[in-house]
Amino acid sequence: MTAEAIIVGGGLVGALTALLLGQQGRRVALVERSRPNREVGELGVDLRNVAISPASAALLDQAGVWDASRSAAYTEMRVWEERGTGEVAFTAASVGREELGWICENSRLLEALWAALDAIRNVSVHVGDEIQDVAVGPAEARLALPGETLVGRLLIGADGGRSLVRSALNVGLADTPTGHCALATVVRIGNGHAGIAWQRFLLEGPLAVLPSSDPHLASVVWSQSPEAAGRRRDMDAQAFCAELEASLEHRLGRVEVVDRRVVFPISQLLVENFNPVPRALLIGDAARVIHPLAGLGANVGCEDVRALVKTAQGVPVDGDLGAQGTWSGFARRRRARAQFMLGLMTVFRRTYAAKSPLSHLLRNTGVSLFDRSGWVKQQFIREALGVGQAAGPLTRSW
Questions:
Q1: N or C: the chain end with fewer CB closer than 10 Å?
Q2: Dihedral over alpha carbons 308, 299, 125, 330 (to 10 degrees)
Q3: H helix or E strand, kind and range, residue 221
């Protein structure tokens, strides 16, 4: 059997792509090392979470897997910094919405996606087999697994920041280390998170505290130097809680308990081409990795999926999904969008990393003006959420 698409990577982006292409009636093969399982820490929730925008939630709903009741809606985001008086509050009410987005446990979302995949006969799932060879020619793509070879019209690499597909195709990329690591954990907080996503820009890096479905549990993602991350990972739990509480200026009350702490390096990368050779695409983190400070990774990956599925709709079922020229426009637009987002994150990081007195003055003045800007601030929120015609020039151009 020749599949219309072979997808490598069964995370959020790969599984959602397989599901939506399968729902179009296409023959799809999905390859992943292991089936996702529900993962919970000592406090009962997954340490890994993803921020889901309204636009991404709509795509998941289109696929039939969105259940807002399993996620934590946040209605407000508050951003402030260690030095200065400038503070910004983004509210759902200001753009006529009930929520800005949702924080979802990664493994719970993947379970829903894979359960939906199990119900589609035209999607074959290949789990546990190591990929032995990747070959993409003018007529087809081949993926060699132990005991079988998958043949498809289009190969889609959705296998993360260390993509095997990207490596096998020798795709050029710009990899920019940030010099930071992220410490991730879950904490129990005395005052509760109040459905607010909190972010503070510290001198050493941004600290985000994100709500969970439990009003007193919150996810922590703390960007910092490798040395600081290692120290905080290994320190006594009580000392860590006290340091986190002080870093948040006690805004969430007492930090009572901390779960296991994990540390991972942060880098930003961008491939030269999302369609590096005919009959091959790269999407999600296989194509670009964005600093987690704004929680954009999953949503930009969902943008890839939405654009991919829309392009595929122009090809008849059982037609040649990898035909020459089909994906050139998709690749050009998605890379331009990635360049914009990576540039935006770089500006944010450098702006808040500047330590001179003049930088602090300009930054605080600018933040205060932005917070009072009315329409400009609303436009910014709509752009970030990907909702409404008022989202205008940036959203429509992708």
A1: N
A2: 20
A3: strand 217-224
